[in-house]
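Re: duplicated header lines in exported structure tokens

Our pipeline writes sequence and tokens for each protein into one text file. With two proteins the header for the second block appears twice in some exports. Here is an export where it did not happen, for reference. First protein block:
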Amino acid sequence: IPGYGDSPSAETVVTAQGRVAFLDHVLQKLGMQRPILISPSMSGRFALPFLLVQGDRLSGFVPIAPVGTKDYTAEQYRRVQTPTLILYGDRDTGLAPQALQNLQHLPEHQVVVLPGAGHACYLDKPEDFHRALLGFLRRLK
């Protein structure tokens, strides 16, 4: 993600519109049509505005305690019709509860909490994570 880790900073992703355009560009370059967008932690800054503006282009959305959920209103979330699996570890007591409080307004959502897992629940409990993810994928049209 531009501006995170060892990647160079990018002025084009300073705004939510710029982050939507960036993610749109990546999906187009990869030739992806109706992908499932998995969004752990910091990637929420990119995934959430994309979901709210272009969620109809996604087959599904899997937020994993993403940042930025409080930047949007309950009404904005209610307009999204993308099937969503809200996933987090029960030991993530910082970001996960806030994310759930906001994301629960998505009308087409289900919640899976991984016992004994922290913020990076996919690393802490990979088998449980994959079981939940695959179950969600099987239910998509």
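Second protein block, exported in the same file:
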Amino acid sequence: MRLWVCIALLSTVLCASADRPRIVEGIIRAGQFVWDAAGGAHDMFRAYKDMREANYKGADKYFHARGNYDAARRGPGGAWAARVIRWPFLLPHSDARENWQSGVSGRGAEDTRLDQEANAWGRSGGDPNRYRPKGLPRKY
């Protein structure tokens, strides 16, 4: 019982102290980064799901920008997730996917470039509504 009381008091002192050891500060920052990154990945996935659900012609750029915007607003971890995660498969960037999308899918290199432009716009804090097509339901 005394051990648990000592652990609780030590934890309270460490958490309440403004002069936390550097290692504790580093662990807290790392934990926040991971939390933001997971949240950013969730934001990107939610935008992807909404894009699939909406199935609205010409809205993909809006959802690219919105997913990246929401992720980047979470903080450094979310911004990192927005840079690392690529559309449309939410997998790490690969040249093979880019080549497939540019050549085989019929969308072309220009569409891929515009997708990446929308991603960068959202990541930099630009308003995703710039890419919002007229007629897209308010739900999105």
